[in-house]
Amino acid sequence: MEHIASISAEFNIATKQINAVADLLAQGGTVPFIARYRKEATGSLDEVAITAIRDRLHQLEELDGRKAAVLKSLEANGHLTDELKEQVSAAPTLAVLEDIYLPFRPKRRTKATVAREKGLEPLAREILEQKGRDPVQLATAYVDPQKGVESVEAALEGARHIVAEIINEDPRARDRMRELYLRKGIIRSKVATDKETEGAKYRDYFDWNEPAATAPSHRILAMRRGEKEDLLNLAMAPPEADALALLEDLFANGDGPDAAQVRLALNDGYRRLLSRAMETELRLVTKQRADEQAIRIFASNLRQLLLSPPLSASRVMGIDPGFRTGCKIVCLDRQGKLLQHETVYPHLNERQDRQAAEKIAELCRRFSIEAVAIGNGTAGRETEAFVRKIDTLQAIPILLVNESGASIYSASEAARREFPDLDLTVRGSVSIARRLMDPLSELVKIDPKSIGVGQYQHDVDQSDLKKALDDVVVSCVNAVGVDVNRASVELLTYVSGLGPQLAANIVAVRNEKGPFTSRTELKNVPRLGPKAFEQSAGFLRIQRGANPLDASAVHPESYAVVDAMARDQDCSVSELMQDATRRKKIDITRYVNDKIGLPTLRDILAELDKPGRDPRKDFETVAFAGHVNQITDLRPGMILPGVVTNVTAFGAFVDIGVHQDGLVHISEMADAFVKDPTDVVSVQQRVSVTVLAVDLERNRIALSMKTAPARVKVFSEDKKPRRPKRENRKPTAEKKQNRPFHNPFADALGRKRRK
Question: At what angle do helices 2-11 and 47-76 cross, to 10 degrees?
Fold first, then answer.
């Protein structure tokens, strides 16, 4: 209950709602199910709020586990007191808990440990009291060669080591120092010795500093990557004078000789102990913040990509283009089943061109092809232009499809299971075609990290990244709904309440006994029990089944109320779903009971209006500029259509049809100031861009979305990014519109399209 209250205050959500979410999660409820079908209990909390509550509950449970471990250790070592137990139990964060535990935590032998073994702790305590006594006179009594204390200075040195450790372990000091590091900490980056040439891509960070509190995620991750590669040296700390002044304010009293010893000790303790601990914490905090932003952007990009409009059920030809190796062609029926595959060589000579055109035309006629999907990799634009010239294909949509990750799918276990006898290139062509038909159904077969919409995805916490991306996939799959008679094992896996084993069991039953005719039949699937049915049924669709509601998002637990509505309107459920006039006559307040409230009833009526509606936008084509096919065709000032392929913290990458994405820097995204690129663009968005500059040597393109962009050269490597002149000054580098591209992004900016 204590956690419920704290989460309620933190999120400004009523405790009743938090309690409801916690109970439903404890009962095995999934986020999509709770958000969609338990609105009465949660007060209509959405998936974002429910996910946040779930994650915060997990964090607090982990804190509870650590508290229990600390209490057990304190008790086992004879340190536990009622006061200490109360402090541990009340610790609001893991950092505070560890501060409390630090003085009692088993540790390696330190300089202070050795000094204590020599009997110098009383001397240290006397000095720390700072009563104006002469420390030399105090130390004389502790000189004992047999204990290893050879002189007064040796005694004082040992005492200072103890004082330094006391200061380092003081909870007040650590709390205030932690706040100072967070508020005034500076990230400093220097090139590693003799690494100037090897680390050239990090040259922006060879001599860089900025406040840690405001450093953007991409710069933090870039610098950390450079450090990991031993090309950069990083340090994070506030001005040392501020840190020492803080400690003096806490521990140094007066100007006596004993106070002088304390000042020596706190200087040593800060530099040798406390600063290292605080830097470690600041590194962790900045890394977590950078990870959160990078993961948030990745998740947002992934959601947009997964919810890309589908072409709908069409017979599609998929082409994986190539020059020397030829174009791999597949023909699929409206269900995505492979009908035929061929290889043609249209880019070698006139004879091969003619043969390729004849073969493509013949395949289109034979299989009544309704659309052509061409991968946007190497030879993509050339193949598109070639196919468009075929006379018999003039009435067929010919579309470039983003093929990122298709090679990953082609070599995956899912692809081998589906096409065990086919070459990898043919599998890749199938993936390209299916992405046009239904991006969601196809992309769930690929590790999200391989789709190409992330930022430093290999540098962030992999566990947090996986959890966030899995949440996105689950959310998208359940938002759209899944045709249980057509879905792959991979797609069914993400349905609320299922998972890999139940998904495989559903497909096995479907293959053995034929298509499901009702949701009720799902109960016969091995191991699909009442709980799994409750969680999944509303998201599974059965088209043309015995009950029309099985094709909708109405949950089976609510079928009775729809039947009642139909009876009251003197019609069948099918007639009710087809007749808007009848639906308008329904007074939903009449159907409120202890299980179904107004939120669910409103959802039911909305679903009856458009049963099984697809939340994705309608499909629309994009045509690149016909006269621009290669990066060499680009000129500054050109205005071109494009498609956003990736959004990052520093801008957006846009495909303009030249095999190389261009970058719209955040400073070029709008006429007004842009704080977050996701506020302006999203993955798959159609945009108009102006070419600012082209760097052929490094294969980079600078673009602008401004109405009147400045014609500037943004690739000047001679220009260094701005740095604050004072340590506490906020950097202005991000605000500079004509800022050069950061070299740490060279891999991303110069990435080549997959063959």
Answer: 140
Angle at CA of residue 195, ends 189 and 198, nearest 5°: 115
Tokens of 592: 């409120």
Sequential DSSP letters for 52-64: HHHHHHHHHHHHH
| Cβ atoms of residues 491 and 516 within 8 Å | no
Question: What's the one-letter identity of residue 357?
Answer: A
DSSP assignments along 490-536, one per residue: HHHHTSTT--HHHHHHHHHHHHHH-S--SGGGGGGSTT--HHHHHHH
Q: How many CB atoms are located within 10 Å of the residue 118 CB?
A: 20
Cβ–Cβ under 8 Å, residues 281 and 95: yes
Q: What is the mean pLDDT of residues 1-13?
A: 88
Q: Which range is least confidently modeled, 49-53, 62-66, 227-231, 461-465?
A: 461-465
Look up the pTM and report it: 0.83
| Phi, psi dihedrals of residue 191, rounded to the nearest 5° | -70, 140
For 407-440, what is the HEC assignment? Answer: HHHHCCHHHHHHCCCCCHHHHHHHHHHHHHHCHH
What domains appear along the chain, each with residue ranges and CATH number? Answer: 2-104 (1.10.10.650), 111-301 (1.10.3500.10), 316-437 (3.30.420.140), 631-749 (2.40.50.140)
* Number of residues assigned to the chain: 755
- Helix (H) or strand (E) run with residue 163 in it: helix 152-169
CA distance linking residue 473 with residue 493, whole number of Å: 10
Both tokens of residue 544? 């043309």
Contact between residue 33 and residue 497 where contact means Cβ atoms under 8 Å apart? yes
Distances, alpha carbon 42 to alpha carbons 14, 19, 22, 36, 692, in Å: 10, 8, 10, 10, 50
Helix extents (H) in 12-119: 15-26, 31-37, 39-42, 47-76, 82-90, 94-101, 111-117
E strand spans, 120-247 = 186-191, 207-211, 232-237
Within 10 angstroms of residue 301's Cβ, the number of other Cβ atoms is 27
CA 174 from chain center: how many Å? 32
pLDDT digits (tens, 9 = 90+) for 345-395: 999 899 999 999 999 999 999 999 999 999 988 888 899 989 999 988 988
Residues 6+ apart with CB under 8 A from 574: 548
- Other CB atoms within 10 A of residue 612 CB: 18
Q: Cα separation of 196 and 192, whole Å?
A: 8
What CA–CA distance (Å, rounded) separates 55 from 246?
A: 36
Tokens of 190: 């220097």
Count of alpha carbons within 13 angstroms of residue 515, beta-carbon side: 12
Cβ atoms of 626 and 388 within 8 Å: the answer is no
pLDDT digits (tens, 9 = 90+) for 558-577: 999 999 999 999 999 999 99
Closest CA to 118 of 141, 140, 149, 139: 149
Using DSSP bridges, classify how beta strands 207-211 and 371-375 pair: parallel, antiparallel or unpaired.
unpaired
Q: Give the whole-angstrom CA distance, residue 612 versus residue 599.
A: 18
Contact 124, 162 (CB under 8 A): yes
Tell me how far CA of residue 7 lies from CA of 22, 55, 473, 733, in angstroms: 11, 11, 26, 37
Contact 203, 183 (CB under 8 A): no
CA pair distance 561, 574, nearest whole angstrom: 14
The answer for residues whose C-beta is within 8 angstroms of residue 543's C-beta and 6 or more apart is 483, 485, 551, 612
Tokens, residue 700: 């980079």
Q: What residues are paired with 691 via a beta bridge?
A: 703
